[in-house]
């Protein structure tokens, strides 16, 4: 069961990352099914969403003072 959940999670997060949609709606139910506490699952899924976003073009130039 855990191996199936791991493979399913990997495949779905890969597809969602390629689509640019994030994978929180896949990760949270899978983590809950595996017995992870809700707050830990939400924090892990949110971290996954932040790390999968591409950087904003020109962000460093706007933030760094001249």
Summarize the structure in words.
- By secondary structure, the protein is mainly alpha-helical.
- The chain contains four helices and no strands.
- It has one domain (2-63).
- 73% of the residues lie in helices and 0% in strands.
- The chain is flat.
- It starts with a helix and ends with a helix.
Shape: flat
Profile the largest sheet.
Answer: none
Strand content: under 5%
Number of helical elements: 4
SSE-based structural type:
mainly alpha
- Helix percentage range: over 70%
Residue runs with pLDDT of under 50 for 5 or more positions: none
Number of strands: 0
Cα end-to-end separation: 55 Å
Assembly state (oligomeric): single chain
N-to-C order of helices and strands: HHHH
> How many whole angstroms does the radius of gyration measure?
15 Å
Give average pLDDT, whole number. Answer: 68
Number of separate structural domains: 1
């Amino acid at each position: 069961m855990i191996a199936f959940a791991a493979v399913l999670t990997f495949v779905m997060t890969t597809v969602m990352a390629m689509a640019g949609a994030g994978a929180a709606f896949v990760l949270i139910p899978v983590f809950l099914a595996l017995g992870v506490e809700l707050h830990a699952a939400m924090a892990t899924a949110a971290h996954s969403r932040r790390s999968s976003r591409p950087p904003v073009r020109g962000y460093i130039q706007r933030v760094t003072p001249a």
